[in-house]
C-alpha cells in the first residue's frame, strides 16, 4: 500500500467502486480505495439488484438514467459482466389517487424523454400473468427497468478503475482520520497511514462511523430489509418458453411490494409498515458477509396483500428469505458532496438504490472533486440539504417513517409527522392556539394556513384543491385589502462584516452592493454562470451587511461563502439560524400599523421602498426591511427570539383597528405567483443561467469582476436558450404542482428535450408479440400520445412551480420555455399537462397584480 494519494475512497461497495472509477476516468490516476473486508461486504452483496430511472426529483432521475446507460460501457471497459437484465417494469395503481400519481409521474417523464406509458391492468397482466388484474385500476409501463448481478457490477466498476490506474486495498480497516494544518488528511489504517488531499466517505453501513472520525454526525440509518425467493414455478417457465422473454418487474403500491423474475422463480420484496432499524446507534465493525434472521411475521401484512394481488405467487414454495441491512437518509435520497466546515471531506453514502443511482453519484461527485462543480443539479442528493437539527434521534425517526412510506403516495399538501416538532419559535404555541396548520420548513415549524376557530386544523391531502383553498383565499384577500402578519423565521439570515466585507460580497454577487441604510436584491452565480443563490442584502453600517435568503440552502450557501472567504481575516461571517427570527406585515394598511408601533418617521419619504432601519418596534430592538415577498406595501421585522412574542402581540393589538389577519406560507406563495416572483430551488437552480431565469435587472455586468461574470456576459451576448415565464392556466379543480410538461403548438423542434436513455425495452403481450400504441388506462389521458410529440404539439418546457393566485383568481404556473416562445402571449399556443390532462395556458408577461409595482413603492 502506498503512503500518499490524491484521494482515498473509504468503502468497497458499489458506490465506492463507482466513485473510484469515475475519479480515475476523470483523470485522477493517483486514487485509492480502502475496504475493511472484501468488495461488496456491506449491503451491496445481498441487494436485490433492481434498477430503474424513475425518481420523484427529475434531476435525480437523470442521474439514474445515466447509471443504467453506463452498464454496457462498463462491461466493455472492464471485461466483467454486470448480469444485465433489461426487462422493463410496471407500477400498479389500485385507487384513483394512485392513478393520479402515475399520471403525474408519466407527465414528468415526458420532458425527460422517458418512454413511460399508461396502460390497463389487463395489459400489465399480459407481461406478468401471475397477477389478478381486477385488483387494479391502471398501471404505468417503464421500459428502462430491470435487474443485474450486484457482485458482478461492483467488480466491473473496480476492474475498470484499476485498468485506469486506481489502486484498491482490501482487508484493511480505516481506524482514524486526522487533518493537518495544510488540509492534508491522515488516513490511518490497520496497515499504515496514507496521506491524502481528499477523503471520500463511501462507508455504507459504516458511514456514520467514518463521519464521526471527522467530527460529523451524518443523518444516515440502516434498516432491515427483507425479500424472498420462490422455488421454481411452472408458470414462470411456461411464460419464458412461450414468449422468449423474462417476466417484467412489478411495483404494487397497496401491497408495499416489488417483484420480478429470479432464475425460474420469483423475487418478492417489501417495504413494510413495521419498519425495523438495524444498529441504530453504532454499526459493529465485526459485522461481515452475513445476513440477519428472517422475520416473516413482520412482513406478513404486506405478503397477505401481495398474495391476494398476485395469487400465482402464493402457492409457490419459498426457497430463501434474505434479510439484510440497507442505509437510508431521512428523505430516502443519498448524501453526496463536500461537507460544510471541513476541507476536502466528501460523502457518497445513504445510497439505498445503489444499482439505480451509483453511477450517477460517482459521476456527479467526481465532477465536483475534479472540476469544482457536479455538472448537474444534485440538490436532491446534496449532503448540505440537512441542518444541525438532523440529529441521531431525528434521523432514526425520519428514516423509519420514510422506509414505511416508500411505496406510499406523497401528496403535495402532505406534511409528515415523524420527529416533529424539531425546532420551534417562541410563537409556536401562539400559532397553534390560533388554529395554525404547521409545516416543516428545514426542520422548523412554520404556519402554513389558519383554520377557522372551532374547526380541526388539518390538511385533507389531495392532488386536487383541498380544504385549505377557501381559507388561504381569505388570508390573501385580508392582506391585499387591509393588512396581514406572518412569521418569517424560516428565512436564512447571515451577517457579513469587517473591512473586506463589501469587496467580498461584490465578488460573490451579481448586483452592486447598497449604500448604508439601503437594500438590494441579487443573484449569486457559480464559475459557470449558473444560479446558485438569490438574496436580499441590507447595508447596516460601513462594514456590516445583513443577508437574507432561503433557509433550506443555509449549509449549501455557507459552504460556498467559506470557500471564498479571504485568507487575511478581513471578513467575518455569521449564520444566525434561529438566533434571529422575524415577522412580516404587508398590505395597504401596513404603514399605518407600523407607525403605531415605532417612535420614528415611517412615511414614504422618510422610509422608502428598499430601505433598512434599526428601530424599536413595540418596544423591542428590531431591524426592519421595507420589502416583502408579497409584492405589496410591507415590512420585514427581525428580532432576537426573546422579543418575538412582544412584537407579535403589539402587532396584533395595534392591527385590530385595521382588520389585521394572520396569514401563512401558502398565502405568501400564492401572492408571489401573482407578482411573477421566482422562488429558490424551483425557478432558480444551478441548471439555469441568470438571463434564462429572467433576472436581468439584478445583474450588473459593468461592475467589478464577480464569479461567473464572463459566462453571464456570454449568455447575454449569445442570448439565453431558455427563459423563465409565468402562465395563466385554464385549470379545473387541480393546479400545477411542479415538473409538469409544457406543450406548445409549434412545428419547430427547439432541442430542449434531452433523451436520457440510450436504450429501452420493448413491451410484449402474453404471446410474445410486441405491443405498440395501446389504449391508456381507463381512457383518462386526453392527450392520446406517447412521448413528447403529438402532431403540431411538442413538449417544449417544464413547470417549476405554481398554484392558485387567490387575489387575481387565476391558476398560475412558472416554468422554462425556449426563448423564441417566451414573449408570445397568444391564446392557443400552450398547454400544461395536469394529472394527465392537457389544459390551455397563456404566457402572462406583466404580473397580474399591480403590474407597475406602485403598491410596493408608495
From TrEMBL:
Record domain FAD dependent oxidoreductase central: where? 371-424
Q: What are the residue boundaries of the FAD dependent oxidoreductase domain, all occurrences included? A: 7-367
At the top level, the lineage of the source is Bacteria
Q: Which part of the chain is the GCVT N-terminal domain?
A: 427-703
Keywords for this entry?
A: Oxidoreductase
Q: Which residues form the Aminomethyltransferase C-terminal domain?
A: 791-849
Q: Name one GO molecular function term.
A: oxidoreductase activity
Q: Give the matching Gene3D superfamilies.
A: Aminomethyltransferase beta-barrel domains (2.40.30.110), D-Amino Acid Oxidase, subunit A, domain 2 (3.30.9.10), FAD/NAD(P)-binding domain (3.50.50.60), Probable tRNA modification gtpase trme, domain 1 (3.30.1360.120)
Q: What is stated as this protein's family in its record?
A: Belongs to the GcvT family.
Its recorded name reads FAD-dependent oxidoreductase
Q: Please tell me the species this chain comes from.
A: Allomesorhizobium camelthorni
Amino acid at each position: 500500500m502506498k503512503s500518499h494519494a490524491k484521494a482515498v475512497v473509504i468503502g468497497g461497495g458499489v458506490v465506492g467502486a463507482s466513485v473510484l472509477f469515475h475519479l480515475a476516468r476523470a483523470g485522477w490516476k493517483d486514487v485509492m480505495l480502502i475496504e475493511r473486508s472484501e468488495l461488496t461486504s456491506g449491503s451491496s452483496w445481498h441487494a436485490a439488484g433492481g434498477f430503474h430511472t424513475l425518481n420523484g426529483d427529475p434531476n435525480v432521475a437523470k442521474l439514474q438514467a445515466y447509471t443504467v446507460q453506463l452498464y454496457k460501457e462498463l462491461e466493455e471497459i472492464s471485461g466483467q459482466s454486470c448480469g444485465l437484465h433489461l426487462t422493463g417494469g410496471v407500477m400498479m395503481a389500485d385507487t384513483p389517487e394512485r392513478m393520479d400519481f402515475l399520471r403525474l409521474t408519466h407527465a414528468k417523464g415526458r420532458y425527460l424523454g422517458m418512454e413511460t406509458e399508461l396502460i390497463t391492468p389487463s395489459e400489465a397482466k399480459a407481461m406478468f400473468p401471475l397477477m389478478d388484474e381486477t385488483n387494479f385500476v391502471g398501471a404505468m409501463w417503464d421500459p428502462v427497468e430491470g435487474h443485474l448481478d450486484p457482485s458482478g457490477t461492483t467488480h466491473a466498476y473496480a476492474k475498470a478503475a484499476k485498468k485506469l490506474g486506481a489502486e484498491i486495498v482490501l482487508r484493511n480497516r480505516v481506524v482514524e482520520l486526522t487533518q493537518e494544518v495544510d488540509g492534508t488528511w491522515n488516513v490511518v489504517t490497520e496497515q499504515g497511514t496514507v496521506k491524502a488531499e481528499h477523503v471520500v466517505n463511501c462507508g455504507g453501513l459504516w458511514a456514520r462511523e467514518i463521519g464521526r472520525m471527522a467530527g460529523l454526525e451524518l443523518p444516515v440509518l440502516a434498516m432491515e430489509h427483507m425479500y424472498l425467493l420462490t422455488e421454481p414455478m411452472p408458470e414462470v417457465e411456461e411464460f419464458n418458453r412461450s414468449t422468449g422473454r423474462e417476466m417484467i418487474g412489478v411495483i404494487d403500491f397497496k401491497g408495499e411490494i416489488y417483484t420480478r423474475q429470479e432464475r425460474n422463480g420469483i423475487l418478492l420484496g417489501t417495504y413494510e409498515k413495521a419498519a425495523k432499524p438495524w444498529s441504530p446507534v453504532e454499526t459493529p465493525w465485526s459485522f461481515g458477509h452475513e445476513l440477519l434472521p428472517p422475520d416473516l411475521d413482520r412482513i406478513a401484512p404486506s405478503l397477505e396483500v401481495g398474495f391476494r394481488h398476485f395469487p400465482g405467487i402464493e402457492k409457490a414454495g419459498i426457497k430463501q428469505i434474505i434479510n439484510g441491512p440497507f442505509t437510508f437518509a431521512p428523505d430516502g435520497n443519498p448524501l453526496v458532496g463536500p461537507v460544510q466546515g471541513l476541507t476536502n471531506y466528501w460523502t457518497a453514502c445513504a445510497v439505498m438504490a445503489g444499482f439505480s443511482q451509483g453511477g450517477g453519484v460517482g459521476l456527479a461527485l467526481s465532477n465536483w472533486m475534479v472540476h469544482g462543480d457536479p455538472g448537474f443539479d444534485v440538490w436532491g442528493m446534496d449532503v448540505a440539504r440537512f441542518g444541525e437539527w438532523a440529529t441521531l434521534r431525528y434521523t432514526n425517526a425520519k428514516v423509519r417513517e420514510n422506509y414505511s412510506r416508500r411505496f406510499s403516495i406523497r401528496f403535495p399538501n402532505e406534511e409528515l409527522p415523524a420527529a416533529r416538532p424539531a425546532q420551534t419559535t417562541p410563537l409556536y404555541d401562539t400559532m397553534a392556539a390560533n388554529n395554525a396548520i404547521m409545516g416543516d420548513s428545514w426542520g422548523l415549524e412554520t404556519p402554513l394556513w389558519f383554520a377557522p376557530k372551532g374547526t380541526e386544523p388539518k390538511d385533507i391531502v389531495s392532488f386536487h384543491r383541498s380544504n385549505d383553498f377557501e381559507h388561504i383565499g381569505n388570508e390573501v384577500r385580508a392582506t391585499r385589502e387591509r393588512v396581514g402578519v406572518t412569521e418569517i423565521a424560516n428565512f436564512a439570515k447571515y451577517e457579513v462584516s469587517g473591512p473586506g466585507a463589501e469587496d467580498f460580497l461584490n465578488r460573490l454577487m451579481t448586483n452592486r452592493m447598497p449604500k448604508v441604510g439601503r437594500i438590494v436584491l441579487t443573484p449569486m452565480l457559480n464559475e459557470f454562470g449558473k444560479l446558485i443563490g438569490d438574496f436580499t442584502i441590507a447595508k447596516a453600517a460601513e462594514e456590516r451587511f445583513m443577508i437574507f435568503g432561503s433557509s433550506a440552502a443555509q449549509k449549501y450557501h455557507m459552504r460556498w461563502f467559506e470557500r471564498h472567504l479571504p485568507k487575511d481575516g478581513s471578513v467575518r461571517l455569521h449564520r444566525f439560524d434561529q438566533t434571529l427570527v422575524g415577522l412580516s406585515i404587508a398590505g395597504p394598511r401596513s404603514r399605518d400599523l407600523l407607525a403605531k408601533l415605532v417612535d420614528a418617521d415611517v412615511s414614504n419619504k422618510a422610509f422608502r421602498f428598499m430601505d433598512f432601519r434599526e428601530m424599536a418596534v413595540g418596544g423591542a430592538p428590531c431591524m426592519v426591511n421595507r420589502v416583502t415577498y408579497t409584492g405589496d406595501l410591507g415590512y420585514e421585522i427581525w428580532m432576537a427570539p426573546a422579543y418575538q412574542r412582544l412584537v407579535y402581540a403589539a402587532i396584533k393589538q395595534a392591527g385590530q383597528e385595521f382588520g389585521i389577519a394572520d396569514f401563512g406560507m401558502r398565502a405568501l406563495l400564492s401572492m408571489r405567483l401573482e407578482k411573477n416572483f421566482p422562488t429558490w430551488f424551483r425557478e432558480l437552480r444551478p441548471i439555469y443561467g441568470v438571463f434564462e431565469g429572467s433576472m436581468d435587472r439584478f445583474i450588473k455586468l459593468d461592475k467589478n469582476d464577480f464569479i461567473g461574470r464572463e459566462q453571464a456576459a456570454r449568455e447575454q451576448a449569445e442570448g439565453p436558450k431558455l427563459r423563465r415565464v409565468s402562465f395563466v392556466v385554464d385549470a379545473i379543480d387541480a393546479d400545477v404542482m411542479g415538473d409538469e410538461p409544457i406543450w406548445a403548438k409549434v412545428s419547430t423542434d427547439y432541442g430542449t428535450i434531452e433523451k436520457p436513455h440510450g436504450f429501452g425495452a420493448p413491451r410484449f403481450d402474453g404471446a410474445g408479440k410486441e405491443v405498440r400504441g395501446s389504449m391508456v388506462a381507463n381512457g383518462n389521458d386526453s392527450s392520446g400520445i406517447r412521448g413528447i410529440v403529438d402532431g403540431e404539439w411538442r413538449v417544449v418546457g417544464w413547470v417549476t412551480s405554481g398554484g392558485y393566485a387567490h387575489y387575481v383568481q387565476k391558476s398560475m404556473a412558472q416554468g422554462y420555455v425556449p426563448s423564441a416562445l417566451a414573449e408570445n402571449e397568444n391564446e392557443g399556443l400552450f398547454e400544461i399537462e395536469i394529472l394527465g390532462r392537457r389544459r390551455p395556458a397563456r404566457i402572462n408577461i406583466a404580473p397580474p397584480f399591480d403590474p407597475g409595482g406602485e403598491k410596493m413603492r408608495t
